[in-house]
Amino acid sequence: MKRNKNYDNLEQSYLFSTIAKKVNEYTTKNPDKKVIRLGIGDVTKPLCKAVIDAMHKAVDEMGIQETFRGYGPEQGYDFLRTAVQGYYKKHNVDLDLDEIFISDGAKSDLGNILDLFDKDNTVLVPDPVYPVYVDTNKMAGRVVNFINANGGNDFLPLPDRSVKADIIYVCSPNNPTGSAYNRVQLKEWVDYANSMQAIILFDSAYECFIESEDIPHSIYEIKNAKTCAIEFCSLSKTAGFTGTRCGYTVVPKELGKLNKMWLRRQTTKFNGVPYIVQRGAEAVFTEEGQSEIDVNLNYYKKNAKLISQTLKECGIWHVGGKHSPYIWLKCPNDMKSWEFFDYLLENAQIVGTPGAGFGKNGEGYFRLTSFGSYENTAEAMERIKKLFA
Ligand code: PLP
After folding, report:
1. CATH number of 197's domain
2. Residue 242 Cα: closest atom of ligand 1
């Protein structure tokens, strides 16, 4: 047996364990202090009624001989793929059903898609970054090149045509920065990728937070994107499916063999998302489902706005907070990310995520999220005002 030695090249991530350790030490020493967590990267609102009703119904079907379902199609049931197709149509994107693949979430597919690509590909990833893009490529033995996202480009780097790339990761609205590409900017990436015959792996896990017509929900809203992009989407943040697990990946037929290769990969290595979950997911796309998830999304958006407004009042530079549940701020007084983490915990009992944990360009920055309760978010913002306004 020869194990995959590429795993030795992965950097250990101590980000969340270090945060937990520091918070634990602080609360043990200061049991009377109320710590507010604004670093949460998970949703907190429960599944909506339409989803729960659909799942209950599906559970009942599974207990009846006539309606019981065993293995389903690996690429998802037609009823859900049709619902996803209808959702894209709302954004003026026409997809065939066999271009839509139901998944158990974006993370798995972002990793699994690499099965389709030779080891010998040049990978381009923005820094700071959602760590999955980097680690999945390193596991496969690929070298990862970084493109700088920073304050100078509002954390929205644009392609440099002198740089060669085969596989390009674009995440918009972005985790961790919350910044989002407009149509003109995204078109630059599409044109660049087409000119290089490269592929963009477009992560649109946060598209449901978009609030303006200028920001595309799908990369396929951009002309010629179907010849250069695979899109990953998720119901995790859209509809609270982080624990329920369902998403979808679009592989356009314009990408030639990749569409059939992905089908082959999925039918070989994946056995589909549970029927009950797919019925729940289908309900997200109904009128009732859409208006119910909006209530939750608006709740998070209100928190994000409040955080952004407070930072503005305090003169703290930031991006995100609009089109995104994330707010990415420059640490005041030129503090380093971990220095600011300690300062905020000590002086305001607020927990966020140090930007340095997402890449070298994250140093000096800090991520707050809007997934907490409104009351806690508001209290945290009052504490921030006391320190910085
Ligand atoms: N992509 C990004 C940018 C994310 O931040 C996350 C989750 O936090 C995912 C993908 C994973 O989503 P899923 O829950 O669908 O696997």
Report:
1. 3.40.640.10
2. 14
Give the number of domains in the chain.
2
Report how far ligand 1's centroid is from the alpha carbon of 330 (Å).
24
Longest dimension (CA), the chain: 67
Chain Cα centroid distance, residue 202: 10
End-of-domain residue from the set 244, 268, 288: 288
For 136, 137, 153, 251, 356, the CA distances from 123, given in Å and listed in that order, are 11, 8, 21, 19, 21
Buried b (16+ CB within 10 A) or exposed e, 77-95: beebbebbbebbeeeebeb
107 lines ligand 1 (CB under 6 A): yes
Range of the domain at 349: 14-43+291-388
Tell me which DSSP letter residue 48 carries.
P
Residue nearest (by alpha carbon) to ligand 1 atom 5:
175
> Residue 231 belongs to what H/E stretch?
strand 229-234
- Contact (Cβ atoms closer than 8 angstroms) between residue 247 and residue 76: no
Atom of ligand 1 minimally distant from the CA of 234? 15
Residue 14's pLDDT is what? 82
pLDDT of 121: 97
41 pLDDT band (50/70/90 cuts)?
Answer: confident
What's the average model confidence in pLDDT over 205-228? 98
Q: Among the atoms of ligand 1, which is closest to the Cα of residue 41?
A: 8
Distance 148 CA to ligand 1 centre (A): 21
Residue ending a domain, choose from 288, 307, 337: 288
> What is the residue whose two structure tokens read 């010998």?
120
Closest-CA residue, ligand 1 atom 11, reads 107
